[in-house]
Each structure stands twice: as structure tokens, then as C-alpha cells.
Predict the structure.
Amino acid sequence: MPESLIDKALETATDTHAIEIGRGVVATTGRLFAERFPGRAGIIVADENHWRVAGRQVVESLTSAGVRLLDPYVFPGTPTLYAGYDNVETVREELRGKDAVPIAVASGTLNDIVKRACGELEIEYLCVATAASMDGYASYGASITKDGFKQTLTCPAPAVIVADLDIMAGAPERLTATGFGDLIEKVPAGADWIICDELGIEKIDPYVWSLVQGPLRESLADPQGCKDGDPEAISGLASGLVMSGLAMQAYQSSRPASGGGHHFSHLWEMEHYGLDWDPPLSHGFKVGLGTVSVAALYEVVLAADLASAIDVDAAVAAWPTWDETEAQLKAALTPDLHEPALAQTRGKYLGSDEVRARLELTIERWPVIEKRLREQLLPAAVLKEKLDTVGAVTHPSQIGMPMDRFRDTYHRARWIRTRFVLTDLLTQANLLDPFVDELFAPGGFWAEQ
Ligand SMILES: [Zn+2]
């Protein structure tokens, strides 16, 4: 990826001031720290695994740049660190009152913990990224489980990010595969945003769009290289993930990097699916499966020609009242999710007149929408093959999920986020049931798998 693209993105980043991506760049950590935090002391936060991978090199770079280091805070290596709020409190209290800038030597979970802890203390920090495992390094907010719910807690992104490709290339395959799964969802997520753009639901910001979608195809081009730890391939993946984070930072929302495939993952996360495994079922594994699922549904939509499939009068007649919607939601989700999901669903519920207008506009705009979707999307089989190659998850059986629960997710995932996606439009068009049925009927995508 051209260096200039990241530089351009940094100009609009609100929190992140410097990013170094490349082979051996861990050696620049000290210089970058000294430039951003002149005269300040540092304190490394890591767990034993990350410390083993990069701790010594980070310490060497910092001390040779004249940075005074306090004793590091290092979590145990086992069990796998969990992004729970209790760990945020632990780090926050460890850092509180110390006149030192935190240096997270971390991949996804630990970075989120340190990010939120620093956010609460209103201090900046530097992150040395150890794996291309998710897009959260440069994003605003941290994914933390608090009060039993996995949620995105607001907090600024790191002030400085160091992404050494040699370190990232040596990360476990599982982590690289999970980062690939997180990144590939940006393909159908872009399609969701196109629909919203055309229907006046949420306009595309062309600059933010370009940050994510510009480098995306190239970043996903070499899954085998990513699996093999080829630094060139990891460079593309890591850059794509960092750019997605910067886009979310610029847009102050995850819309540029998260669509219906993420809804699948978020629902399973909220239902604690696989969270008590060791290691826990990763975000990117769930997102990758969600990506294939949504892409397969898009294929049904495009094959059917949505505009001619919509019967506006019938859809409006079938449209549930809010009370009926609430009852459907409660029947679909476990009681602990009712309150948060109702709040999210309320945010996108339409009255029947608005549904009529929405569907009429969809029919009118369909030729343009269809053209843009075809340009944006990749076939589900292609996405699946890339994910299979990198070692990610592409079938519910790989994560022990019963087929009926998986199939149900097409109907249930939209409840848990206000963000409008394809399944919302199909619900309003009264077409979600038949289209999902097609996927599982003989000859359908999931029946073939
Ligand atoms: Zn994600």
C-alpha cells in the first residue's frame, strides 16, 4: 500500500498522530515515543505471550532513545486474556497516579483493555501491534464485556501505532485468519452502505469510503501468503486493517467497516457463543462466517431482481405494528437481550406509510443500486475460498453451531443494532423468509455446502 494513503488518513485522524508499518519498525518505537512524548517516562503493558514476542525489542528501542521505563505490567499468558471490564479496571488502577505514558505491546484484546483504561484516565498511549488480528488498533472505542454485554465503549485510539510486519508475520495463524475475517466483511458492508446511500438512510462519505474500500481488494488478494506469514501479504492485511480503523476514527462510527456480517457476529457474541472456550471464539472467525452468509443472500437478491420481486401493497399490509415487532423480537431473543435490542430496533422502526415510501424508492432506484452492488460485491464462493485458504471459519459446523441456529441468525441478527443492513430492507419488503429459504433449499448456497 502506498505510504501516502496512510499519511493522508492521518491528517483527518482525531487521535492518532503517527503510524509506522513495515519490517523491523519495532526499532523505531523509541524515536516515535520521544517525538510524541518528549521527556516522559514509559510503562509497558503486556501479557506474557506478547512480552515474549516483542517485549525485549520494545525495551531496547525505548531505552536506546533515552526513555526511562517504569516496571512493566504483565498479565499471565494463560488463560487467554479476556476483554472484560474487570481487566480495564486493573490496568487503569495500575496506571493511575503514575507519571508515565503506557506502551501496549498487544493484539486485539489487550489493546482494547489499555485503550479504554487510558480513555478513562484521559491519557494518550502508544501501541505496538503484535498481530494483524482485527481493525481495532486505530479505531475509536474498545470492544469490552461490561455488565454481561459485549459493547463498544468509547475511548480515543492510540496516539502512536507501531506495526512491525516481522512480528506480525510470526503471530499464530489463528490471529492472522481472524484479522482476515474482520477485513473481508468490508466487502458486503460496503454493499449495505450503498443501499443506505441510495435510499437516503445514511449517505456515503466519499473520503471515508475511500480509506476502507480503496485498498481493500489488494489487502485481501493473498490469503495463502497471509497464512504462510509472508511479510508482503501481512503488510497488505495489516494496512487494510489500520486504514479501516482510521476510517472509523474519522467517521466516529463503525459504519465504514461494519455491516450485516458484523451483526451476525455481534448477536453470537451477545449470546456468549464460544466466549468461554479457550481461546474464545474470535471476533474475526464469527465475522468471516457472517460475511459469507450475507454475500450469499446478496446473490439471491440480485438473481431475483429485487424491484420486480417487491409487492408494495402486500408488503405494507404484512408490515407489523410496533407492538407486533416488539413481540416478534421478544420471541426471537433471550430475555437478557430484550431491553438493549428493543432500544436498537426502535431506532430503525418505520410506520407503514414510511415503509411504503421506502419500498417505492427502492423500486425506483433499483437499477442504480443493482449496478453499484454488482461492482462492489464478490461472489460468496470467492469470499469463502479466501477465508478457507487463510484458515478462517466459513461453515457453522466448524464452530459446532447447529444448522437451525445458524439459519435463524439471518432473521435475528438485525434486532441487535440500529444500523440498517440488507436484512432490514428484505424484512420491510416482506422477502426475507423466501430469500433465506432459497439459500437452504436444494441447490441453494448452504444446501450445497
Ligand atoms: Zn470487526
Residues 134-135, 182, 258, 262, 283, 287 surround zinc ion (CB under 6 Å).
